[in-house]
Amino acid sequence: MLIDIITLFPEMFGGVFGESIVKRAVDNGILKINLTQLRDFAFDKHKQVDDSPFGGGSGMVLKPEPMYRAVRHVLASDENLSRRIIITDPAGQTFNQDKAKELANFERLIFICGHYEGFDARIYDLADELISIGDYVLTGGELPAMVIVDAVSRMLPGVLGATDSAVTDSFFDGILSYPQYTRPRDFEGKTVPDVLLSGNHAEINKWRREQALKLTESRRPDLLD
Fold first, then answer.
1. Which tens digit of pLDDT belongs to each residue from 49-89?
2. Whole-number pLDDT of residue 208
3. Distance between CA atoms of 22 and 93, rounded to whole angstroms?
4. What is the tens place of the pLDDT at every residue in 128-167?
5. 3-state secondary structure of 53
6. Backbone CA torsion sign across 195, 201, 207, 213
7. 124 to each of 11, 34, 87, 90, 106, how far by Cα in Å?
8. How far apart are CA 5 and CA 144, in angstroms?
9. How far apart (Å, rounded) are the C-alpha atoms in residues 222 and 132?
């Protein structure tokens, strides 16, 4: 999968994408991530990409011209890949596991990250969809883009070490994941359930499903609706 991110702060992505599973996916050629600096597409020598809003108000608004130039530059190397252009925005659909699975079916994702007080409204015409990661306000769209890329990358074949790791994640089938245990068998009087040591995989799977449902009912009953 090819991922392009248009941002004012490409340096923010180094720590997240340079470690762990995403880095391994890049190293293995499963993911390719391009970071595009929006200021490179400004018209003036000061690289200005924002301006004060018409009608007054506080803060600055991202201008349409640099963003259109940036997106058109990115699309010039499209190579006829199936793609989705996404603006990370609080007005968008709330991101969840189903959306991660849906986006994993595309060959290319392009993220437009906002900052300051938001976008000139004409920029929204560039996007196929808006996605939010929750009902709260962040400084910019970079963190949501990182979250979405991380979640989507887990859905790609070959990214995770075990082929069934993703399907046992919380939310993959709409409920929370079951409790997990490892050594020692007894820790300060808290013991591992006997069924997990039985070797009976049918009973283990049954127990895990029951525990997942109980945990979901206890902690996130809204998911069962």
1. 999 999 988 889 999 999 999 999 999 987 789 999 999 99
2. 94
3. 24
4. 999 999 999 899 999 999 999 999 999 999 998 655 555 5
5. coil
6. positive
7. 24, 21, 8, 13, 20
8. 11
9. 19
| 129-132 sheet: strands from edge to edge | 32-37, 2-7, 108-112, 83-94, 129-132
Encoded tokens for 154: 């887990």
39, 32 in Cβ contact below 8 A?
A: no
Could you tell me if 175 and 147 are in contact, meaning their C-beta atoms sit under 8 angstroms apart?
Answer: no
Token digits of residue 179: 């409790």
Q: Output the pTM of the full model.
A: 0.86
DSSP structure string for 120-133: -GGGGGG-SEEEES
3-state secondary structure of 17: helix
Q: E-assigned strands of 101-187?
A: 108-112, 129-132, 186-187
Q: List residues with catalytic annotation.
A: 90, 117, 154, 169
Q: What is the pLDDT of residue 80?
A: 87
Run of H or E including 93: strand 83-94
Asked if 98 and 148 count as a contact pair (C-beta separation under 8 A), the reply is: no
